[in-house]
Amino acid sequence: MARPKREVDAALTKEMKARGLEWQRFRDRNKLSQKFLAEIIDVSRRTIQSIEAGKIVPLAGTLKKFEDLRVKYENEGKPTGKRKQKKPNDEGEF
Predict the structure, then answer these.
(1) Helices 60-76 and 34-41: crossing angle, nearest 10°?
(2) 55, CA 20 to 30 Å: which among 13, 24, 25, 31?
(3) What is this structure's pTM?
(4) What total of structural domains would you count in the chain?
């Protein structure tokens, strides 16, 4: 059963779009995919898409995780979202 749509006032819509643009710029600057960002802050990729499109407001916990991550990247200068590949151990297993 579909939930009824809520009306959103113009100020909130503008804020949601600005927040989405902020998230997208953060990802672009740090070369992170939506999928990787979603894994880091423990949400779905679809949630990241919806936030960036200005369709939803992130939950407080999600917003806190994003802000903590952003501060960490700014302070520690994390250059990329690429993961390190696992190396095989002595028996050739990963």
Answers:
(1) 110
(2) 31
(3) 0.70
(4) 1
Q: Mean pLDDT across the chain, nearest whole number?
A: 84
| Burial class (CB within 10 angstroms; exposed 0-12, middle 13-18, buried 19+) of 89 | exposed
66-78 burial: b if 16+ Cβ within 10 Å, else e: beebeeebeeeee
pLDDT > 90 in the chain, percent: 61
Interacting residues of 24 by C-beta distance below 8 A, sequence separation 6+: 52
* Amino acid sitting at position 90: D
State residue 2's pLDDT score: 72
Output the six-digit token pair for 47.
């949630």
Asked if the structure places residue 85 within a domain, the reply is no
| Domain ranges, residue 45 | 11-76
CATH number, domain containing residue 43: 1.10.260.40
